[in-house]
Amino acid sequence: MATERRAVTARELPPFYTRRDAHLAGMTRAALRDDGVRVSRGVYVSRALPLTVLAMCRSLVPALPATAAFSHQTAAGLLGAPVQQVHPLHVVVPPGSYRPRRQGVHVHVRSVADVDLLEHRGLPLTGGPQTWLDLAATTPADELVAIGDALRRAGHLSAAALDERLALVGSVRGIVRARACAPLLTGQAASRPESLVRYWVHESDLPDLEVQVPVHDQLGRALLHADLGYRRWRIAVEYEGRQHADPLQFGIDIDRYSLMAGNGWLVLRFGRAHLGRRTLVLDRLAGALLSRGANW
Predict the structure, then answer these.
(1) Measured between alpha carbons, how far is 43 from 18 in angstroms, rounded to an integer?
(2) Alpha-carbon distance values, 208 to 23, 167, 228, 235, 274 (Å)
(3) Do residues 144 and 243 both lie within one domain?
(4) Residue 248 lies inside a defined structural domain of this protein
(5) Region 188-195 average pLDDT
(6) Looking at residue 125, what is its pLDDT?
(7) Res. 180 pLDDT band, cuts 50 70 90
(8) Do 178 and 248 belong together in one domain?
(9) What is the average pLDDT score of the chain?
(10) Do 163 and 180 lie in a common domain?
(11) Does residue 296 sit within a domain?
(12) Which domain range does residue 11 map to?
């Protein structure tokens, strides 16, 4: 009877738990080894769930002080930004509070105003402006713009809120880069690659690209919008990600590009292989501009 009671309790164990929770639920060491993925010392995520950053953060909350908040790359990823780094998880705690020392957790100690914190998906995070400013210290400018665009797109980073945050900052690391990149951010850029290409062009001697460029027919009706481009010279720049390999999407793309060409647009298409070839992308854009008689 006792064994049966323990099994029922173990089945009621939540998907994020501590070693103490598992012990109180009657889970044996063997069961813990089979079920739990160890995120950090004494905290686990059940193998029944995908091991996402969200799941890891939720499992870690009981092991953190109440004043802690997820920050930097971790907060940015949870807010929907395209960050590459998953480990370690980044946490900020105020001076004087308990500073957890755990494998897989990078703890930053500093004061964060309440206005710079939020609760998102049940987790305490640094808000969009503070998170973006934190990343400015270590993130290349093109990636910082891509992260900022994503935060703008998701509604976590308005121009006014960012301007207000930057006005309050002193001589912190990364502030020069942040102030240079802030005016470039837009919520209209639909993906990281678009943001990267847009930044590369801005830093070159080419004319700045427009975002979500309308393609009109002979009657002046907007038929569609190109990812990036130049209205003046009827040049469209399109990025094709993995989803464009889908047969249905491929058919849509064929119709889209033929429609652009039929209305006098030159379409440059880039893919994942071009993201590491900045000079090539700029050279092809320059060639397209010259072919349309552009002077700059």
Answers:
(1) 4
(2) 60, 26, 10, 12, 19
(3) no
(4) yes
(5) 94
(6) 97
(7) very high
(8) no
(9) 90
(10) yes
(11) no
(12) 2-55
Other C-beta atoms closer than 10 Å to the C-beta of 267 total 19
d(CA 76, CA 81) in angstroms, rounded, equals 5
The whole-angstrom separation of Cα 102 and Cα 279 is 42
Look at residues 245, 222, 252, 227 and name the one whose alpha carbon lies nearest to residue 237. Answer: 227
SS3 for 109? strand
* DSSP assignment letter at 68: -
Burial environment of residue 85 by CB neighbours within 10 A (0 to 12, 13 to 18, 19 or more)? middle
Rg, the chain, Cα only: 24
% of the chain with per-residue pLDDT over 70: 92
pTM above 0.85, yes or no: yes
| 268 pLDDT tier (thresholds 50, 70, 90) | very high
Measured distance CA(28)–CA(211) in Å, rounded: 57
**Among 108, 26, 93, 20, which Cα is nearest to 59's?**
20
Domain final position from 158, 184, 210: 184
Tens of pLDDT along 24-37? Answer: 888 999 999 999 99
CB distance 255 to 263 below 8 Å:
no
Which residue, of 34, 55, 76, is where some domain finishes? 55
Find out whether 146 and 104 touch, Cβ atoms under 8 Å.
no
Angle between helices 159-167 and 128-135 (to 10 degrees): 60
CA distance linking residue 143 with residue 155, whole number of Å:
18
Judge whether 53 and 86 are in contact, CB under 8 Å: yes
